[in-house]
Specification:
By secondary structure, this protein is of the alpha+beta class. The protein has 3 domains: 114 residues, DNA Polymerase III, Chain A, domain 2 (Roll), CATH 3.10.150; 118 residues, Roll (DNA Polymerase III, Chain A, domain 2); 112 residues, DNA Polymerase III, Chain A, domain 2, CATH 3.10.150. Helices cover 17% and strands 43% of the residues. The chain has 6 helices and 26 strands. A 9-stranded antiparallel β-sheet has the order 14-11-12-13-26-25-24-18-22. The chain has an 8-stranded antiparallel β-sheet with strand order 6-2-3-4-17-16-15-10.
Length: 367
C-alpha cells in the first residue's frame, strides 16, 4: 500500500473511527483500524463488534492499492500531531506502516488484515431515506434520557419505530422518558422496530456532517445501518423488551403550566445550587400567574426564586430532580415550555417542541 492523503481529512477520519474502536478488547485486532486503499480513495474501518464504521476519504493519490491493520489510537494520535498539509502512508512489508509528513516520520506496527472482522456493505434494497439533520435532531432530543446505570438492558438503547409514515425515537431510564417523531416518506413496507445502542446512534450523529444531506437507513433482524455520502455505520440491535412507553405519557391532566423556558432553566440552576446528592430535589409551587422554585439541604441551606408563569388548575406543589429538568430544557426548541400533570405524585409531561415530549417522574419526599 502506498498513498498520499490530505492531512486534515485523514486526521478527522481517524478521530471518528476511534470513537468506535475499544481501548481494551478481548481480541487485539479490534483495537486496530483497518486501512484499505483502492480506486483513488482510502477506507478507514473500525468496530467493537456492536458498532462498525466504514469511512471513505476521496481524492487520495493511491500509488499502490492495498490493505493493512494498524493500532487505531496510536495512528490517530500520530497523524493528529503532524503539521504538514499532506500525509504519506506506505507499507513496509507486512509488519509496519510508514507514516510521514514533511520531515516527520513514524513507523507503526502492522498486522494481518485477515485478523480483522468482516464488516458488510450497505444494501440499498428496502432502505428508508431521511434528511440527515432531521435524523440527528431526533437522536439529540432523546439520547440524553437513555439509561446509563446498570439495569434493564433494553433501556441502554433508543427505541426506533417507523410506522404510519412517521419515524419515532424513544429513550428512558425508568425515571424519565423522551419521545420525539417526524414525518418520513413511506416505502410501502411493513412497520420497523429496533432498539439501538445509544453509542451507535451517537456514532450515526457524528458522521452526519451536512444537515441537508439525504441519508439512508436499513433495518434488518439483527442490525440497523446508516449510510451517508462518505460513511456507513452498522449497529447490532439490543435484544430485549422495551418498556411500554405509551402508558407513561399522560393523556388527561388537571394542571397546566406555561413558562418562559430560558427563565425557568436559569432559576432551576440557581435554586439547585443548595441541593445535594442526598437531597437533589427542587419544589415547584404553582399558583395563578406565578411559579416559585424552592430547594434546600441540611448541608447547604435553602434558596428560592419566583417568576411569572401562566397556570391553570388549583394551587399545588410538585418536586423534581433539577438535573433532569435542566437537561430537558437544554434541548427545548420552544421559547415557552409547557408542563402538564395531575397531582404531586403523578408524572410531569413537558412539551419541549413540536412532536417532542419529555416525561419526568416527580420526587414525593417533602422539601
Amino acid at each position: 500500500m502506498k498513498l498520499l492523503c490530505d492531512h486534515d481529512r485523514l486526521r478527522e477520519g481517524l478521530a471518528l473511527v476511534n470513537g468506535i474502536i475499544p481501548t481494551k478488547a478481548t481480541r487485539q485486532a479490534l483495537e486496530n483500524v483497518n486501512l484499505v486503499a483502492k480506486d483513488g480513495a482510502l477506507e478507514l474501518v473500525g468496530t467493537d463488534l456492536e458498532v462498525a464504521l466504514r469511512l471513505s476519504i476521496d481524492d487520495v493519490k493511491v500509488g499502490e492499492p492495498g490493505t493493512t491493520l494498524v493500532p487505531g489510537r496510536v495512528c490517530a494520535d500520530f497523524v493528529r500531531d503532524l503539521t504538514g498539509d499532506t500525509v504519506s502512508l506506505e507499507s513496509g512489508g507486512d509488519t509496519k506502516l510508514v507514516v510521514s509528513s514533511g520531515s516527520a516520520r513514524g513507523e507503526l506496527p502492522a498486522s494481518d488484515p485477515e485478523e480483522f472482522p468482516i464488516v458488510e456493505r450497505f444494501e440499498d434494497k428496502g432502505a428508508l431515506t431521511i434528511q440527515g439533520g432531521t435524523f440527528g435532531k431526533l437522536i439529540a432530543r432523546t439520547s440524553f434520557a437513555a439509561a446509563k446505570e446498570q439495569g434493564r438492558y433494553a433501556m441502554h438503547g433508543i427505541l426506533i419505530l417507523v410506522e404510519d409514515e412517521r419515524l419515532r425515537m424513544v429513550a428512558t431510564d425508568g425515571r424519565r422518558l423522551a419521545v420525539s417523531s417526524v414525518p418520513i416518506a413511506s416505502d410501502g413496507g411493513p412497520p420497523r422496530r429496533a432498539i439501538v445502542p445509544t453509542k451507535a446512534l451517537q456514532a450515526f450523529q457524528r458522521v452526519i456532517t451536512d444537515p441537508l444531506e439525504q441519508v439512508q437507513l436499513q433495518f434488518s433482524d439483527s442490525q440497523l445501518g446508516l449510510r451517508t455520502k462518505r460513511a456507513e455505520v452498522f449497529a447490532r440491535l439490543i435484544d430485549g423488551e422495551f418498556p411500554r412507553y405509551q402508558a407513561v405519557v399522560p393523556t388527561e391532566t388537571s394542571h397546566l403550566l406555561e413558562a418562559d423556558a430560558e427563565s425557568l432553566a436559569k432559576n432551576l440552576k440557581l435554586v439547585s445550587n443548595v441541593t445535594t446528592t442526598d437531597a437533589r430535589a427542587v419544589r415547584l409551587s404553582l399558583s395563578t400567574g406565578s411559579l416559585e422554585l424552592f430547594g434546600r439541604s441540611a448541608a447547604s441551606g435553602q434558596a428560592s426564586a419566583q417568576m411569572e408563569a401562566d397556570f391553570k388548575g388549583e394551587d399545588c406543589d410538585i418536586a423534581f430532580n433539577p438535573d433532569f429538568l435542566m437537561e430537558g430544557l437544554r434541548h427545548c426548541e420552544s421559547d415557552v415550555v409547557r408542563l402538564e400533570f395531575n397531582d404531586r405524585t403523578s408524572p410531569g409531561k413537558f412539551t419541549l417542541g413540536e412532536e417532542y415530549v419529555y416525561v419526568v417522574m416527580p420526587i414525593t419526599v417533602d422539601i
